[in-house]
Amino acid sequence: MDWLTWLLAAVIVGIVILIIVSGIRKKKKGEGGCSCGCSGCAMKDSCHPQQNK
């Protein structure tokens, strides 16, 4: 394989790692993963169980 293939693979792996790290940070802050609001979401009960009344 040539160096361009390795470079492209490294960029893709880096982007995937950044997405995973961002998701972990959001989860620790208590934010949802989709960033679209929870009012109409079918998964809101599993995403934020502590906020249910």
Describe the structure.
With 53 residues, this protein is mainly alpha-helical. The chain has one domain (3-51). It is 58% helix and 0% strand. It contains 2 helices and no strands. It has helices spanning 3-29, 44-47. The mean pLDDT is 79.
Task: Give short descriptive properties of this protein.
0% strand; single chain; 53 residues; mainly alpha; elongated
Mean pLDDT: 79
The fraction of residues in strands falls at under 5%
Summarize the main sheet. Answer: none
Strand tally is: 0
Radius of gyration: 17 Å
Fraction of residues in helix: 55-70%
Shape: elongated
Order of helices and strands: HH
Distance between the termini: 57 Å
> Structural class per helix/strand content?
mainly alpha
Number of alpha- plus pi-helical segments: 2
Runs in which pLDDT lies below 50 for 5 or more consecutive residues are none
Query: How many discrete structural domains?
Result: 1
